[in-house]
Amino acid sequence: MTSLATMPSTKVRRIIYFGTPEVAVAPLQALVAAGFSVELVVTRPDVRRGRGGEPSPCPVKRAAQNLGLKVSHSIDEAIRSTENQSDVLGVVVAFGEIFKTSALQSLPMINVHFSLLPRWRGAAPVERAILAGDKTTGVCIIRVGEALDEGEIYASEEIEIADHDDLSSLRKKLNDLGIQLLLQTLDSGFASAATQVGTVTYAKKINPTDLHIDWQESSSKILRQIRVGGAFTFLKKKRVKIVSASRASATQFAGEPGEPGDLVNISKTSFDVVCGEGAISVSRVQPEGKDQMTAEQWLNGARLKPGVRLES
Questions:
Q1: What is the pLDDT of residues 263-299, one digit of tens each?
Q2: Considering the entire predicted model, what is its pTM?
Q3: What backbone torsions phi and psi does residue 277 show, to the nearest 5 degrees?
Q4: Coil, helix or strand for 58?
Q5: 128 Cα distance to chain centroid
Q6: Cα(40)–Cα(15) distance, rounded to whole angstroms?
């Protein structure tokens, strides 16, 4: 194994921050508010959004500029800026890029990871925890090493995943917890660390297959897909996203059993969909090419009748 840069032996006040998406904004702001000297923010290059759009900065870059911080898209620049300095630490939150060995040998780094390692190493730990039906998850502050999310753990804490938690609400809870653990770890130092123990699972990026609803599945599994965001089905070969839904009560569902995918209990304002086990009550949808709307708005426009079946 390659020798990594030595972790600081004293409390660190100088930070090089690595992050890209919205979830990495609040930790950056918290570090600045706590008085840390964020000497450089390294993030992914601007990307074009929309057809013919101008290059647009990522959320972390916008936040860094608003805070008056220096921004770079180059890991190499970050490494050069810390040569021969032993009191600088890299803090990584959802950066989205692999570090070269040379970078890890030059700059000690920690990562705020949103799972209870070694469960859900990888790119989509929060989404995978919801899809798998996990009852708990958490945050780990780990050493950044050469292998993906295999570093030693400096701090960790567990939280419950509520039945109503969607991706947004769970990320918010984990982010708040992550900020707390990050600041505590920076204050207490890096004298002790624990090796990861347990069964390793990997959190692959979410793809359309993960979110394509199969109405033969149970209502519990389908609701988990909806809670992650972007779950979709088809009606007359046009895609319909199910934005929010809840489990249909046994009383609601008893009158019209139907087949998986059937729309039942249709009223002017609501409808249920039969699943392989149980049913769901849909409250918001997004038809193909349109904005999100309530179930009532969709029913008014689509004029659906009993016997309509959503396609898996």
A1: 988 888 889 999 999 999 999 999 999 999 999 999 9
A2: 0.92
A3: -140, 115
A4: coil
A5: 9
A6: 7
